[in-house]
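We now fix the convention by which a protein and its fold are recorded. Think of the row as the fold of the chain written in a discrete alphabet. Here is one such record, which you should read through line by line.
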Amino acid sequence: MEALGIHRRAGHHRFDSAARRLASGMMAEAYHELANVVEIKEASELTIPRAKALLDAIQRQRDYSLVQILRHPVEGNPTRECLVVEVECDDVPPKNPTGIQYRERLALCVPDDAKKLIEVLALRQDFPVLMHQNQGVPGAPASLCLYFEPAAAVMRTWTPQAFLRRIQWWLEKSARGELHPADQPVEHLFFASKYELVLPWNLDRLRQNPGQQFVVVRQEERPDEGFTCFLVPVAPNIPQAKTAKHIELILPPIVHGFIERDPVTLGELDDLLTRRNVDLIGPLRAGLQAGIGQAGATASSNDTGTVILLHIPIRRAADAEPDGSIRRAFFVPVNTLELGVACGALLVHEKRYYQDLLNQQPSTAWRDQLLLPMDVLIQNDGAAARRQSGITEEGPTGVLVGAGSLGSALLNLWGRSGWGRWTVIDKDHIKPHNLSRHVAYAQHIGETKAAVAADLHAAVMQGATQITPIVADACDLGQEPVAQALTGATLVVDASTILEYPRATSAVDALPRHFSVFVTPDGNAAVLLAEDAKRMQRLRTLEAQYYRALIEQDWGKNHLAGHTGTFWSGASCRDISLVMPYSRILGHSSTLAEQVQAAAVSEDALIRVWQRDPVCGAIEVHDVPVRPEQRLGPGELGLYIDEGAVQQLRQWRQQGFPNETGGVLLGYYDFNIKAVVVVAGLPAPSDSKASPAFFERGIAGLAEAVKDASERTAGMVRYIGEWHSHPPGHSASPSRDDFVQLVHLALGMADDGLPAVQLIVGEKDVQILQGMVR
């Protein structure tokens, strides 16, 4: 018991403890409270339920033996009861390098608050200082850090028996050096503090500039009396009233696993650094004198302390190169001018402070000055953001077209996770109604969406990664900023709400791989169209094949049908916006953000649809097979059809043998890109007439089928012409009757000024004709 510092006096046991250590408030709670304890002679005198249960478990556990029972305080209701035990661990190797012994004496300190953990103190005076110990003060018993989880999570399944086994596990793992895996990053003793110092993500690079100066900016105090400070490069816009003095010191490298208890006074810190041949008082005096001119300085109520930052290189072995660096910081909670006087750096005369340049024997009053340990945090760079998000790929050099509701949400997700280096193109600006489902805030009204997305990203990443805004129409591919961004990218994601961009870029060979993402008008579905890495299947044909799936599949019936409603967002007849909850945008954007990342590392094309049930929130996923596209026939308009549509027509041809068969063609015209795109065909109506020599299409149910296809595709797909087959053994070369039919088709389409399309399926080939009345 001498190792615990206990003296016998009238049946009481008291701990020796320096008053200044108690004042630090950073020691183990149990050690603090056991400064005034009384010994309990009988186990029946225990009053704390967990202490009773723990004692019962100890008496049943053969590896544990009870030495003594203590209670705090001496008078009144106990706030803590302590069971002093000896524990034996068979799996502790003899003469292990960490210094854990086969038999250890421990104090199991049980608080009366059932929400708090039982603290385990190692009572051996020379118990080793190891990782995974709770923060304490020099001379106090080591406090074993048994759990990684917070107290509430531990107490959810805590039992006395499991607690005793956990203690043995900690001792055995520590003795074998297995509590800290070899591949885990190097670390030092952790401590919890309500004071924080946040370092810039690029501090090492900033340090390469010898002229770069830094200042510590302090935030307002929080309700828990803690605060956060930021180490930032000196800039004109830093409010000097909220800055603090600071000094930085670089220590010699130490070996991973070597632990120092954090000092609680400037004197203890000076002793620690002196043992490592590092001078503290010199740089501290110089830092406190800096900025004090000949006119001196007066005390300010905003001057509340000094920050000391230590940089400590870490090695995994004594002969290894440093494997990174850890940092510790301390806050000296006293006016820096008064600290300067205590250090002999300053002198005071008539309430003004001047540099004390002649003091040959500076005061040592500074040694008793209290230190508050600070958690040292580092702002995220791209690599840290990816690591925290579980992302292994750095991501593409990307362009996002459209910074609206969906696009801004995607950028927010990708930007915060460090995935990709993005340029965003959008010509629109933020209007009041955008705030209901956009990442922007009220102060952004009137600013361009692209610039707002970039600024919000900068506010998160502080320059570690950047988003480049381009305020332009992405469809104008000839604009230099647009063209330069597109050609310099490895991936372009179209999140706009218009068809012009994906269709126009499908005709440009020099552009990089393109994806298209969108949410349906009612917000209940999301769609991803991804070109293959070689761009053999482009967005134009992926769009058509997506439409065909809507026409043919049951899930396509209501996929694009209807919307929640509309509202007028302005006075113009074009100022009509859809009613849609932001929750649906965010839900789909999260899915699309992850799926785009997955598709980007695959070389295959992809059509994927997520259909959500708005009542129960269930999601159905539909993959549409992607088929190659081909261009057929001459004509002013390019006619495009994919092999899936051709195969569909061939199957109907074969089913009609030995007769000819046919039906109508569905698709869409786009004169902006001079294209006619075949989406699908419809089979012969039931009242059609056919023989091996001719085919006459009927009309039974045809109008309804065409209307249904148009409704399923939100009016995008319509009637564009006819198709028919030639009998077995015949090619697709048009006959005289076929040309006559084409004339009739052209006359029929002339009222709308559209060309007629005639497609013929032969034994081995397919031919297509266009006809138009001029």
